[in-house]
Design brief:
Layout (H helix, E strand, L loop, with lengths): L6 E4 L3 H12 L5 E3 L12 E3 L1 H10 L2 H5 L7 E6 L5 E6 L2 H7 L4 E3 L1 H9 L7 E2 L4 E7 L3 E6 L4 E4 L1 E4 L6 H7 L5 E13 L12 E5 L6 E7 L4 E9 L9 E3 L2 H7 L5 H7 L6 E7 L11 E3 L14 H16 L5 H25 L10 H4 L13
Parallel strand pairs: 1-2, 1-11, 2-7, 4-13, 11-18
Antiparallel strand pairs: 3-6, 4-5, 8-9, 9-10, 12-15, 12-17, 13-14, 14-15, 16-17
Length: about 375
């Protein structure tokens, strides 16, 4: 493929930044258009399982992430009422030996900072909110922005999230579905949890129904503990998907959980509450001159901790599929063929929420190597 190919990426989130870096790694230049005017330290956590960490290692950011991340020693499942441990999967060194990378848990902003540091100067344009996208006879994508500027690219990559403007231009307008599940998030200094067990582990407390759970894992080299709790709610009336929550409501909703889980919740002072939205798996992510990745095409429930990881995998595989191909459409077809079924399977598994509840084999998720998986190119 010509080195003069123009590639535009909408969205400078984890998937978009990963895509640009991966494209650079295979010798292709790209430019990112991001609607916000500046990055902010937003979000609380990111749980990167070995498949995601191995992909990030190939992007050259793994060493930087290890400086601030925690490395959970085990992935533990426990029952909400009895505290019974139903599965324990060794992570950290054991995962590194088996899968080639550990699990890393960290603040989302630390991952973003590491990725941004790998973006070449001039490749990232901020304050570029898309107003209109047009595809011209399968040859170019034309983008108009709300600031009055415009551009055209040979290949457009939609990494612009669940409200994707690129997706809308490709396939028409639709709306994500509220799952009937809300999530509470909180970060607790570990020093407030003296006496609690397994503070160096990823622990999931399984509730009385698939929508109710509490997940806990360390951040910041173990100095903080992140809490993520979900439960059913009939409707979501807030204008924002994320709002300040009530620690009293959080504790009341899980008042019947095991005392060890309640002890963690008792230390939560500030809480965020958000609605969880999904879309059904798409039959296609491409149209010949444009492709989607990450939440733009496969937004997931968080129950397998694969949302960010699948976006990173998409980015790596897409770059590999564009490396050396004779034309864009064949590369995009190879990308879709390599990624569609895996992401759909993880979407379905995340929604059913039975992943590793009572043990099982994690290899099909954690053992995936985006840099080495067959891609079936016809060059």
């Amino acid at each position: 493929m010509s080195a003069h190919l123009t590639i535009g990426i909408c969205g400078a989130g984890i998937g978009g930044l990963s895509a640009l870096i991966a494209l650079n790694r295979v010798g292709l230049d790209a430019e990112i258009f991001e609607q916000t005017s500046a990055f902010a330290r937003v979000g609380a956590d990111i749980n990167l399982t070995p498949n995601a960490v191995r992909a990030l290692d190939g992007l050259g950011v793994g060493d930087e992430l290890r400086k601030t991340a925690a490395r959970p020693q085990f992935r533990i499942s426990r029952m909400w009422n009895t505290g019974e441990e139903t599965s324990r999967l060794a992570m950290s060194e054991a995962a590194e030996e088996k899968f080639g990378a550990p699990q890393l848990t960290m603040h989302r902003a630390d991952l973003m900072s590491a990725l941004v540091s790998r973006v070449p100067e001039g490749s990232l344009q901020m304050g570029k909110r898309v107003e209109n996208i047009e595809f011209s006879a399968g040859a170019k994508s034309s983008l108009a922005f709300t600031d009055g500027t415009s551009t055209s690219v040979d290949l457009l990559i939609g990494a612009d999230g669940i409200h994707s403007a690129v997706r809308k231009a490709m396939f028409g307008a639709d709306h994500p579905t509220f799952t009937g599940v809300v999530a509470f998030r909180a970060v607790i200094p570990t020093e407030k949890l003296a006496g609690s067990a397994d503070l160096d582990c990823f622990t999931k407390w399984w509730g009385p129904d698939p929508e109710t759970q509490i997940v806990m894992f360390p951040l910041n080299k173990g100095r903080d503990m992140f809490v993520f709790a979900t439960c059913p709610q009939d409707e979501w009336l807030e204008e924002s998907w994320t709002t300040p929550g009530s620690s009293a409501e959080l504790r009341d909703l899980y008042r019947d959980f095991h005392p060890e889980a309640q002890a963690i919740l008792a230390a939560c002072d500030e809480v965020l509450k958000s609605a969880l939205y999904v879309r059904d798996p798409l039959e296609s992510w491409i149209n010949g001159v444009a492709a989607l990745l990450g939440d733009a095409c496969h937004p997931m429930m968080p129950f397998m901790a694969q949302g960010a990881g699948q976006a990173i995998e998409d980015a790596v595989v897409l770059a590999r599929c564009l490396d050396g191909v004779s034309d864009i459409p064949s590369g995009l077809r190879a990308y879709q063929e390599a990624r569609l079924e895996r992401t759909a399977q993880i979407q379905r598994g995340s929604r059913s929420n039975q992943w590793l509840k009572a043990g099982g084999n994690a290899d099909w998720v954690y053992g995936y190597d985006a840099w080495d998986v067959p891609i079936g190119l016809s060059v």
